[in-house]
Amino acid sequence: MLDLENIKSQKYISLETYRKNNQPVKTPVWFVIKDDLVYVVTREQTGKVKRLRNNLQVKFALCTMKGNVTGEWVSGTAKILADQEVKEAVKMRDKKYGFMAKIAKFASKNKGEFFAFTILQS
Predict the structure, then answer these.
(1) Does this model's pTM top 0.85?
(2) Beta bridge partners of 43
(3) pLDDT score, position 47
(4) pLDDT per residue as tens digits for the range 83-99
(5) Of 86, 100, 109, nearest in space to 40 by CA
(6) Domain ranges of the chain
(7) Class of domain 4-121
(8) DSSP string across 41-92
(9) Terminus of the chain with fewer CB atoms < 10 Å: N or C?
(10) Contact, 12 vs 63, CB < 8 A?
(11) Other residues' Cβ atoms within 10 Å of the Cβ of residue 14
């Protein structure tokens, strides 16, 4: 079990989600830690959301902006959040990433509404 307090200040995790044929897909994503949970915010019309709707099993590890893994892989299960929880997750993300979050919001607005999930470590 990874001590999430130790990674709180890091910028990226590599999120591994799975296609229907179980082929893994790794994506570097921003994340926030709260109450011993990893929160990830994205948009509804992204590949990782499509994959999560089919399979909630995930893995994550610390990584660079380009996705080069720098930490140990941790297995977990994603839990898709309800609307109010999504709003809270977006606020937490915006606070952590500041101006870059504003740019990301604008750049990704054609990908649908915000979508967020937590990762429960297995």
Answers:
(1) yes
(2) 114
(3) 96
(4) 999 999 999 999 999 99
(5) 86
(6) 4-121
(7) mainly beta
(8) EEETTSHHHHHHHH--EEEEEEB-TT--B-S--EEEEEEEPPHHHHHHHHHH
(9) N
(10) yes
(11) 21
